[in-house]
Write a structure and sequence with these properties.
Number of helices of chain B: 17
Oligomer: heterotrimer
Strand order of the largest sheet of chain B: 5-2-1-9-17
Largest sheet of chain B: 5 strands, parallel
Shape of chain B: globular
Distance between the termini of chain A: 57 Å
Number of domains of chain B: 3
Number of domains of chain A: 1
Radius of gyration of chain B: 24 Å
Structural class of chain A: mainly alpha
CATH topology of chain A: 3 helical TM bundles of succinate and fumarate reductases
Number of strands of chain B: 21
Structural class of chain B: alpha/beta
Largest sheet of chain A: none
Strand content of chain B: 15-25%
CATH superfamily of chain A: Fumarate reductase/succinate dehydrogenase, transmembrane subunit
Radius of gyration of chain A: 19 Å
Distance between the termini of chain B: 42 Å
Mean pLDDT of chain B: 95
Chains: A mainly alpha (about 210), B alpha/beta (about 625), C alpha+beta (about 250)
Order of helices and strands of chain A: HHHHHHHHH
CATH class of the largest domain in chain B: Alpha Beta
Bound molecules: flavin-adenine dinucleotide, iron/sulfur cluster, FE2/S2 (inorganic) cluster
Strand content of chain A: under 5%
CATH superfamily of the largest domain in chain B: FAD/NAD(P)-binding domain
Helix content of chain B: 25-40%
Largest interface: B-C, 82 and 76 residues
Number of helices of chain A: 9
């Protein structure tokens, strides 16, 4: 197993971990978003969606554990990369300019990542680990988004997600070796589109909910 | 001294085979007992180091740059010749041999040149096997182009970066041996002396350019592959670090210096802009395939090129040489450019340039075709000059490019010091008085991959092995001399910088010992150089100390050697009372102003022997005999 | 047309690897726009020498953009602001009168500063020694035309092989990663049939060596590609990632 460890602790291996876990989060975001779209059709649709989801039982708890596991890998590897990368240039430049390679998404990756961890924890506390006896998930959501702080906080977080994903999406393909002059322009555009959809799709929910109260 | 070139007997085509058989071999198990020093990591030194290490020798390799991959060979653009005859256009070893001998104006050894042609094909095989990405045809076969006026297409190339790719090939082979522990690589080291013990080269003394420390290394044989001395002219197309120090100090230790006055001036370089100019950039010779060279007919014409009508332009090469036109050999093209500028017909701000015009070619073939052929060169030109050659003619002027002269070596590439071998541009062996395009890369690699591995074995196998340590008196003396030399340079604390002296030396040589020479000018140059050298040792300003990274000190040492060597170059030019190839003495020209050889009196190699500082060197002649080719007068009319 | 400029230079001066360095200010007067950047430093160095001060140490050799020896970070940009240009080929006409120019060495944990602007890039050589070659001894190579190589492949290999080993990619990378350099060599040899037999070992050894030398990790910032004077593409990094994947999971190399 020495080779296995060596592979995944190498610079490329660590990137793979980021890419694979990152892409799986993109998958998760997609399904989460699809599910949440039911919110736009009103209370009953959303509640029945939630019920359906919970009836999946084992499957759901396996996915949850999987996501948690991936999340831990993504965060820990990200932190290791962040620290190693800072250390690889002990003396910084007095003047440093971008040549046009970096994007807002790419250079804020570690920071947007940290914001997202905080957000996810709050999000889970708000909507996942709440006491759901005697109330529906829709009510919980409604209640949360009646507070302006929550609305602003969630919208902000969704912008951050979009920024994070705008780099993460194409970057994952590049890392996994999928870069070809023929396809890359498409992948890059798809990445932007995906981040916009995710950002708008999720970001509009609090606004929508608060308007429908 | 009687020079013995050790040319094997027998028919030309069989000499090398026969010789290889006759050379004594070192037993494979014994090879690891031998240490070999290689100085230089260009095509010659890089390939030699790798090949010798593969055979089992312990190799110590030195270079000035921070990495062996940066040797000056990296800059070669055009390509490398080989008599593969892949194009089925009539090429053969014999034709490549003949072209090279004739191109060299019959001042090279037949046997060496023939061997070079024979080995040329192996070089391409070797490089391809290493992963050199040569240009290919659609069918996947190697592409060729015709180069430097050759009538067959025998030049292999990798875009305009052939030297780079070949060097990276040699560098990769070298890297493999470094990783295997068979080569000890010493970068940022400058060789400052050869240690000769009982007539045999036994080591080198180098300066560690980072720490300033003087270091001593012993070995059973020493290989010099330190490149050419074109920078004696200050401005040249050579890299800034190219120097004569290694070969000149070997000369001082008893290696003869051959034909120093054979220097090549390349016709298509970007002209000088101002006094601050540090080096000249070559524009590939291939440009002359489509560009037309012209100057205004009226001297001092200051109009823009676009404002000068056809009738007032002088396409002097086409007019003077109707059959070769713009494709005359390098020396002829260069001399004619100078002649036009001397007449006041030069163009550009400095009036030291001629036009190379692509307007007709673009009209004929379309911009796209021209861009495909020369796009990268046009781009490079624009980067440097901010002029767009698609719209306005290029300006070009000749510049020092290559030095055919170098340390004298015999057929085994051994100098007059036993055990001191000299490869690549550093030796004098294969190009006579003028080198053909794409032949230097070929020679460097032939020497390193395919000649030295055999001939050095022959030397080692026939020489009694003697373990020398670096605390030997000869090493200590050499070390002391170097330290004294350094201290002397540092202690002068004069008023002029090293570059200032170098620039002045360059001006003198360019003026009096450049494209065309005459005895009066040469005499004058000799005097000027002596004076300048005198002033240098009184008035040079070298800052810093010897015990640190000190680039001024490095340069100072090199310029000190150039100041001595420059005189040797002039002495050689003075002694050769004929014109041949790159050496054009105005007193010896045909009625058509072409170089006129004197085969009766000068069909020899001039090998100079050092006789101490301040004494005239002694001329030794190695007669050149031509059994296989007939000496003819070149004509390009 | 030739003009002259007056500039203020802020140059990093550092005596040796372990000394502290700082930015010093110099006036560069009457600098011709036709000069190259290095020629401008030559002029300053002549002045400094005559004033009895130490000239600025900087590496350079070919001065035509091919040896890869020169390089400094100019106003925050490795090799200066021009695209696809080495420092030696950067001309002063790209600056304006009165400009202040910051000149700093390549900065990376893997590149120690030797003096002023000169850095030790031997780490790049060590990466090549780990496998950037085809193991073929001199002699005995088959005829050069024995294995046809499509023009497309040869061109792609050449695109990668054009790397001059200058290290600007490392200097430009926010993480001081050497991925572009390493991938260029791995790509070149992975594309060519001659390099294939050793592809797996090469990919693994070169990547591991690169990691050991203290370079940072790639985060796909693309600054390397944007600054590379030879415009080497990050397509090569993707190819290296594939090669490394194949080598890690489908070869016997451990
Ligand atoms: C711009 C240009 C274009 C060219 N184009 C072509 C072409 O298209 N085709 C062609 O055939 N030829 C061409 N040439 C000529 C050819 O490139 C050279 O002649 C050839 O590369 C010389 O190789 P070399 O190995 O002998 O020496 P170099 O490559 O010059 O190497 C010299 C080595 O010696 C080392 N060295 C020097 N002095 C010392 C010292 N004192 N101590 C320690 N080390 C030292 C250096 O560090 C370096 O490693 C061109 C030359 C120039 C300038
Ligand atoms: S990839 Fe580009 S920037 Fe990096 S070393 Fe090679 S040439 Fe320089
Ligand atoms: S000095 Fe050679 S690339 Fe700049």
């Amino acid at each position: 197993m020495g080779w296995f460890i060596k592979t995944f602790t190498s610079s490329i291996g660590k990137k793979w971990l980021m890419a694979i876990t990152g892409l799986s989060f993109c998958g998760f975001l997609t399904s989460h978003l699809l599910g949440n779209l039911t919110l736009y059709s009103g209370k009953d649709a959303f509640n029945s969606y939630a019920e359906h989801l919970h009836s999946l039982g084992v499957l759901i708890s396996v996915s949850e554990k999987g996501l948690l596991f991936f999340g831990i890998i993504h965060v820990l590897t990200g932190l290791v990369l962040f620290i190693q990368n800072i250390k690889s240039r002990p003396v910084r430049y007095s003047v440093k300019k971008s040549a046009g390679g970096r994007t807002i998404g790419s250079f804020t990756m570690p920071y947007t990542g940290l914001v997202l961890i905080a957000f996810i924890v709050l999000h889970l506390i708000n909507f996942h680990f709440v006491d759901k006896t005697g109330t529906t998930i829709y009510q919980i959501v409604q209640e949360a988004f009646s507070k302006p702080v929550y609305i602003i906080g969630y919208i902000f977080a969704m912008i951050v997600v979009a920024v994070h994903v705008s780099h993460g999406f194409w970057s994952a393909f590049q890392t996994l070796g999928v870069n070809h002059p023929k396809y890359m322009p498409f992948i890059r555009k798809a990445g932007i589109a995906f981040s916009l959809i995710v950002g708008l799709g999720f970001g509009f929910i609090p606004v929508f909910i608060s308007l429908t109260i | 001294m009687q020079l013995d070139a050790k040319i094997p007997a027998g028919p030309l085509a069989q000499k090398w085979d026969k010789h290889r058989f006759e050379l004594k071999l070192v037993n494979p198990a014994n090879k690891r007992k031998y240490d070999i020093i290689v100085v230089g990591t260009g095509l010659a030194g890089g390939s030699a180091s790798a090949s010798l290490a593969e055979l089992g020798y312990n190799v110590k390799t030195f270079c000035i740059q921070d990495s062996p991959r940066r040797a000056h060979s990296i800059a070669a653009q055009g390509g490398i010749n080989a008599s593969k005859n892949y194009q089925n256009d009539g090429d053969s070893d014999w034709r490549l041999f003949y072209d090279t001998i004739k191109g060299g104006d019959f001042r090279a050894r037949e046997a060496n040149v023939y061997r070079l042609a024979q080995l040329s094909g192996n070089i391409i095989d070797q490089c391809v096997a290493q992963g050199v990405p040569f240009a290919r045809e659609y069918g996947g076969q190697l592409a060729n182009r015709s180069f430097g006026g050759a009538q067959v297409s025998r030049t292999f190339y990798a875009r305009g970066q052939t030297g780079q790719q070949l060097l990276l090939g040699a560098y990769s082979a070298l890297s493999r041996q470094i990783a295997a522990g068979k080569v000890q690589m010493y970068t940022r080291r400058e060789m400052l002396d050869i240690v000769v013990i009982e007539g045999h080269a036994k080591g080198v003394v180098v300066r560690n350019l980072v720490s300033g420390e003087v270091e001593k290394y012993a070995a059973d044989a020493v290989v010099l592959a330190t490149g050419g001395y074109g920078n004696v002219f200050y401005l040249s197309t050579n890299a800034m670090g190219s120097n004569v120090t290694a070969t000149y100090r070997a000369y001082k230790k008893g290696a003869f210096f051959a034909n120093p006055c054979f220097t090549q001036i390349h016709p298509t370089c970007i002209p000088v802009h101002g006094t601050y100019q540090s080096k000249l950039t070559l524009m590939s010779e291939s440009l002359r395939n489509d560009g037309r060279v012209w100057v205004p007919k009226k001297p001092g014409d200051k109009r823009k090129p676009s404002e000068i009508p056809e009738a007032e332009r002088d396409y002097y090469l086409e007019n003077k040489y109707p059959s070769f036109g713009n494709l005359v050999p390098r020396d002829v093209a260069s001399r004619n450019a100078k002649e036009q500028c001397d007449k006041g017909k030069g163009v550009g701000e400095t009036r030291l340039a001629v036009y190379l015009d692509f307007a007709d070619a673009i009209k004929r073939d379309g911009k796209e075709t021209i861009a495909k052929k020369y796009g990268n060169l046009f781009q490079m030109y624009e980067k440097i000059t901010a002029d767009n050659p698609y719209e306005t003619p290029m300006m070009i002027y000749p510049a020092v490019h290559y030095t055919m002269g170098g340390l004298w070596v015999d057929y085994n590439l051994m100098s007059t010091i036993d055990g001191l071998f000299v490869l690549g541009e550093a030796n004098f062996s294969d190009h006579g008085a003028n080198r053909l395009g794409a032949s230097a890369l070929m020679q460097g690699l032939a020497d390193g991959y395919f000649v030295i591995p055999y001939t050095i074995g022959g030397y080692l196998a026939t020489t009694a092995k003697k373990q020398i340590k670096t605390d030997h008196l000869a090493f200590r003396e050499s070390e002391k001399n170097i330290n004294d030399f350094t201290n002397k340079l540092l202690s002068i604390k004069g008023k002029r910088t090293v570059d200032d002296f170098h620039r002045q030396l360059g001006n003198v040589l360019w003026e009096y010992c450049g494209m065309s020479r005459n005895d009066a000018g040469l005499e004058k140059a000799r005097k000027l150089i002596q004076e300048l050298r005198g002033e240098f040792w009184k008035n040079v300003l070298v800052p810093g100390s010897g015990r640190e990274f000190n680039q001024s000190l490095e340069k100072a040492g090199r310029v000190a050697d150039f100041l001595e060597f420059g005189e040797l170059l002039v002495i050689d030019a003075l002694s050769r009372k004929e014109s041949c190839g790159g050496h054009f003495n105005e007193a010896h020209q045909t009625e058509e102003n072409e170089a006129m050889r004197d085969d009766e009196n000068f069909c020899h190699v001039s090998a100079w022997e050092y006789k101490g500082y301040g004494n005239d060197p002694v001329l030794n002649k190695e007669p050149l005999t031509f059994e296989n080719v007939k000496l003819t007068q070149r004509s390009y009319k | 047309m030739t003009k002259t400029l007056n500039l203020t230079l802020r140059v990093w001066r550092q005596k040796g690897p372990d000394s502290a360095g700082k930015l010093e200010t110099y006036d560069a007067k009457n600098i011709s726009t036709d000069m190259s950047f290095l020629e401008m430093i030559d002029v300053i160095n002549e002045q400094l020498t005559l004033e009895g001060k130490e000239p600025i140490a900087f590496d350079h050799d070919c001065r035509e953009g091919i040896c890869g020896m020169c390089g400094a970070v100019v106003n925050g940009r490795p090799h200066g602001p021009e695209k696809g240009t080495t420092l030696c080929q950067l001309h002063m006409r790209h600056f304006s009168d009165g400009d202040t120019i910051f000149i700093e060495p390549w900065r990376s944990r893997a590149f120690k500063i030797i003096k002023d602007l000169a850095v030790d890039r031997s780490a790049l050589d060590i990466i090549i020694q780990a496998g950037g070659y085809v193991s073929v001894n001199t002699g005995g190579a088959p005829d050069a035309n024995a294995i046809p190589i499509s023009q497309e492949t040869a061109e792609k290999a050449m695109d990668a092989a054009a790397c001059i080993g200058c290290g600007a990619c490392v200097a430009a990378c926010p993480n001081a990663s050497a991925m572009l350099f390493t991938s260029a060599k791995i790509s070149q040899l992975a594309l060519l049939p001659q390099g294939k037999p050793e592809a797996a070992k090469r990919a693994i050894e070169m990547v591991r060596t690169m990691d050991k030398l203290g370079f940072g990790n790639c985060t796909n910032e693309r600054e390397c590609e944007a600054e590379c004077p030879k415009e080497i593409s990050i397509v090569n990094i993707a190819r290296m990632n594939r090669e490394f994947f194949k080598a890690s999971f489908f070869s016997d190399v451990k």
